[in-house]
Amino acid sequence: MDGGDEEHNYTSHLAQVTEGEWAGWSYYPGGDPYEDLAGPFYFQDRPTGRVCAFRAEKKHMNGGMFLHGGCMMTFADFALFVLARDALENSMAVTATFNGEFVGSAGIGDLIECTGEVVKAGRSMIFMRGLIVNATRGGDPMMSFSAVLKKVGKRPA
Fold first, then answer.
1. Is 65 exposed, middle or buried (0-12, 13-18, 19+ CB in 10 A)?
2. Residue-level pLDDT at 89
3. Do 35 and 41 touch, CB atoms closer than 8 A?
4. CA-CA distance, 153 to 157, in Å (whole number)?
5. Do the beta carbons of residue 82 and residue 35 sit within 8 Å?
6. Number of separate helices (H) and strands (E) present in the chain
7. What order of strands is seen across the sheet that includes strand 26-27?
8. Closest Cα partner for 84 from 127, 27, 132, 31?
9. I want to staple 10 with a disulfide (CB 3.0 to 4.6 A). Which of 3, 54, 86, 96 is the partner?
10. What element of type H or E holds 36?
11. Cis omega (within 30 of 0) for bond into 47
12. Measuring CA to CA, how many Å separate 91 from each of 34, 42, 65, 80, 137?
């Protein structure tokens, strides 16, 4: 998730939204081709911590017209790296392990949010946990997850 070549790495694409529903949020257009296809996914810092979010669209649904589990996992993976930004410092990383439990659903138009935390940041591994909720439905839980990010080297300057 941390980008492609040295000149156009993931973090070099950070952009701020200035108008519309997502004004005041940040995102990474062109930073990760798969996330660009699946998203857009956004994040912002709040007094209670960093929050990631997106609005569920038809493209995010499964055959039963509920939010696809793969979409939730993709969003959670995006959130891992956003939530771990401070712990990653200038390191590149990959998702080494990912565990998730699906506990709720969403439909088209629902606002999906994710919060989480770094449980422990070691020299080469970052242990994380998070929760995805349906903000439209009062914060009903949709997925709890835990993961480990593996640092794989320094990010190019």
1. exposed
2. 85
3. yes
4. 12
5. no
6. 3, 8
7. 15-16, 26-27, 42-46, 49-55, 111-121, 125-134, 140-154, 91-102
8. 127
9. 3
10. helix 33-38
11. no
12. 21, 21, 38, 14, 37
pLDDT (average), residues 1-11: 49
- pLDDT, tens only, 30-49: 878 899 899 999 999 999 99
User: To the nearest 5 percent, what fractions of the chain are helix, strand and coil?
Assistant: 20, 45, 35
The token pair at 109 is 């138009």
What gap in Å lies between CA 5 and CA 28, rounded to an integer? 15
The angle at the Cα of 85, spanning 15 to 146, to the nearest 5 degrees, equals 120
Query: What is the bridge-based pairing of β-strands 125-134 and 140-154?
Result: antiparallel
pTM value?
A: 0.89
